[in-house]
Amino acid sequence: MKLSIFLLPLAFASGLLQAQEAIDPDSLLGVWGTSQDQGESVWGYDHYHADGTVKSWGTFPDSIADFRVDGRYQISGDLG
Question: Tens place of pLDDT for every residue, the chain, 80 residues?
Fold first, then answer.
């Protein structure tokens, strides 16, 4: 499952923001939120760990359906 996130990764992925300098992958670690209203409310969270694991959880908008996902991620490509 791929979730859109409203902070830095979404801005880069959508092409809205272009990196002026190389991005340190460590700066992408931590908890990110998923929003449909520019962060006024958050319905999902992703916690990226340095060991390549990610834990995601939340409740889908306009529903009572919640989710919890554990997975692995890999950063690749030109980040700078």
Answer: 444 444 444 444 444 445 556 667 788 899 999 888 888 889 999 999 999 999 999 999 889 999 999 999 887 777 65
Longest dimension (CA), the chain: 42
Tokens coding 72 = 């692995």
And the tokens for 49? 């760990």
Question: Coil, strand or helix: which one is 25?
Answer: helix
**Alpha helices in 1-80, H assignment, sequence order:** 8-13
H helix and E strand count, the chain: 1, 4
